């Protein structure tokens, strides 16, 4: 690489600048915040500045002369969209300058990637006494085409930002101080790989563009289109790089030739994951599995499609996971990042000032893709160990630092809207009873718009169980009083997954929701009465999950596990009863991997799944014994000719991959009921037109359930608008049908009479019904307006 040249003078000056910061800053964290802005690989004019925090080099007493920045340039243009390729790389080792644990190098002639071209790849390397080179990967990389556990690509982020199609959206927000985004009115949550047939960010962006064109031209909308309408914000599940295959294959495999070149076998990342199994490294960029073009520009394009949507712009809310790392993070980061194991993998060392600074810098760079809001996953997991008191403390200071980060896009500084998922004292056994869901809100008094997930939005909500709504009535009363800063709604990625894990033989299932378990689950999480409660009654910000509103299946999807993959599938096996019937399994394209392994029918797989969870438990997950016992079942189980540990792992992977395909929303669109999608869209439009509903119940508002119960739960709610209008809603949540009643008779005494008119009726109530006596059944609801 003759064009590449090391800039010794500039590198030395950067190292000296770092030393001055460390010497003069108020404290190490303040210094770390400044230095973190120079870390990673950043294009500055005709040069690229490389910066690493590598405390392990101090631990191991590695000398300066044995440390280099490794530059790898592919021979010819590298096609990153190929599933597999053999590539040769030229290799150059750049000298470095060190300042304590920080390492810098500046070079001209480095090729930076962009939308049209692939750039050079890089890592920090060090040489041991035997001449062996070991890589230290860049956790702040902005492009990782082969995942976070492989060399990163130098990427021209500045040009990506300069070319973004929504610059005018951000420029219109510019003011003297940072613009502060407020809460949206409602949110659509979705999982990129199952949201469209293409399963990529680019595919979803095209769908948003198409929908926008139809809206702009006044064209009719199909039920599939209506699923995306009525929301002013979209929240994808996490977009960060996730774990890789535990047992291989690796996405980057290489050998060093005698001539000093790198010969590599490259594999396009193709894991299936629900998004929360992250390794912390690479959090500033995008999971390559989600990128059709392998270019992170796709996320900018998606943000722009939302921001430029005709009529009302839609906000982008990013879901970030900084409360834990999968154990694979140990292979991507220095041990200095970690504070010890937890139930997910590893705790992060938030007390280390440089770790703290780098994590915040990762967040800043990610949100600068153009997000209007941030959802923080598992905020109760941000903890540090108080040695003096010998107890864990919640790091609320760090959460405040997260929400206080100033972003900058298109020259506009802004503060995103923040929502935290926090169920503390979870995982204590009494968390469902003792959690207030207000801990973060009450701590972050500097921002009145900080939100949390509310008590009916957190995990373990099962609205298909009889008496669910009455048993949660105490939580509903809390929502009415405190819900203005809560996310509401019962259907999200976590609650729908938990619902599929309920054993239907052990609980009293609400069979009035449907004739089959699939129908019951679908209607429980896409329920007209529940949605009336959420959109026309409850304060806060409603949120729906696309797989729920599309009545598509959903579950825990992760095919990277080798050690515990069979155990995870055993735990998920019960979802077969809830989400897959004989007809669905028989469709040729469904469950093709399992069928190829011998499970030709649903009954074949169901019989295997009856044995597997029991054997996992009684053998204490001894795979050899499980395989032997499965092979001894009489009559023999369907599936492999001979059960072995290897075959069990193949079955587990096949289940995950088949379920991933089965959960794709595109497979369910032709089954959508236009009456249901149309009603739900009208309900969301109603909320958009009445944003005042976000506020808590006032003194004139009322909420009650009809008494006597008589085998059914009927909620009646009255709310008063600031302009004098009144909204009255009646919802049949569960149980027997009512006798013929006039809904307006359920109004409080002082509100009866007047010009009440019906404005929304749930599916199943004829359009000819305008008021008066009616028999209400499970899941029916009505909304009236007066004034």
TrEMBL record:
Annotated Gene3D superfamilies: Glycosidases
Domain of life of the native organism: Bacteria
**What Pfam families does this protein's entry cite?**
GHL5
Q: What is this protein called?
A: Uncharacterized protein
Q: Which organism is it from?
A: Alloyangia mangrovi
